[in-house]
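Predict the 3D structure for this chain.
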Amino acid sequence: MSHKPLPIPPVILELKLAKRYRELDAACEEALQQIEEKQYGAELVEEGYEEMICYGIGFFKKQVKIHVRRKLLEDGK
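Done. Predicted structure below.
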């Protein structure tokens, strides 16, 4: 069932746990890489979306770091 997409892009979140504080950036990048590799937003093209916002979130104890990327979606044309 197709519907008109909302005017704001969808958001994809991936969370990773870091073993050390200094590994927070790497955890965020690993999360973003997983979103890309597993094509989490692939079905969004069929829904009519042209872009999505990806959040790679890394945690270490009570500390958190977030990396954000805006991704243009391709429909294979």
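Helices lie at 24-37, 42-46.
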